[in-house]
Amino acid sequence: MPTDLIRLDLRLRRRMLIGTAVGAAAYLFLVVAVYPTFKHDTAFDDMIAANPAAAAAFGITGSITSPEGWLSANMYANFGPLLALMLTIGYGSAAIAGQDGDGLLGLLATLPVPRARIVAGKALSLLVAALVVPAVSYAVCLAGPQFELTPRWGPLLGVSVALTLLAFDLGAIALLVGALSGSRGAAMGAASAIAACAYLISSLSPVAEAVHRVRWLSPFLWAVGDGQLTRGVTVGELGALAVLGVTLVAGTVLAFRRLDIQ
Asked: Closest Cα partner for 9 from 82, 86, 92, 89?
């Protein structure tokens, strides 16, 4: 039965998933293809050095003309997470609260399936949605050597996994708030607000002392905000992202058991 639920939920959002995958691939391919034009242009690095606060607001630190800096500044530190979160927060807010409002969840609840299994199916669907942007992005980066862009493949793979977990975690917040409130708007608003705060904490921590003190609170920092494309993602960072996701799903199970389904 969870497999049927996964197929149903993914079918309902297939246009969004496919469209985002195609858009992310086209955008990143353009980023990769134009890299040789900017590879030796030191003006970008000089501009970042002169305006570190403005650059940090977009998640840009260090050299932008290195392969890792180019990919980070144009995809992995900002646009990539944004696309991934659009999918997962959108799905997370619709999977329980949205379907409750539409009457679909009531039909599912009448089936002889424990509510915990329904949540498990939705968590797996959320994981598939979280995989779309990182997987497509990694595949496009494989064309990088054809355009003089050769990143460190190990760290890039680690960041792809971390970005998947980050997107899952923020989507799981929407899933949890939806199960607690029964409101799609509340789920989307809460998850979006938390994602925005986490991004700002991660991006501004290098230039704002007050923010730097609480940087460890941001899952963005654990995934893409601390030079992971260059140094790699640590086991501790991946573990923190995974534990957060499991905790949120467990909380969703408890909340869903108490939800008064329409």
From this structure: 92
The tokens describing 246, both together, are 């499991």
CA distance 217 to 25: 31
Sorting pLDDT into bands at 50, 70 and 90, what band is 61? low
Cβ-based neighbour number of residue 142 at 10 Å: 11
Contacts of 260 (CB under 8 A, 6+ apart): 182
Residues 111-160 pLDDT 10s: 778 888 999 999 999 999 999 999 999 999 999 999 999 999 999 999 99
Alpha-carbon gap, residue 203 to 227, rounded angstroms: 11
pTM: 0.92
Q: What is the Cβ-side half-sphere exposure of residue 110, based on CA atoms within 13 angstroms?
A: 6
Distance between CA atoms of 171 and 122, rounded to whole angstroms?
11
Select from 17, 168, 181 the least CA-distant residue to 96.
181
Alpha helices for the chain (secondary structure H): 2-12, 14-33, 35-38, 42-50, 52-57, 67-71, 79-93, 99-102, 104-109, 115-141, 153-181, 184-204, 209-212, 219-223, 228-231, 235-258
Contact 169, 245 (CB under 8 A): yes
Higher pLDDT, 204 or 190: 190
> What's residue 85's pLDDT?
97
74/4 Cα distance (integer angstroms): 37
| Phi and psi at residue 242, to the nearest 5° | -70, -45
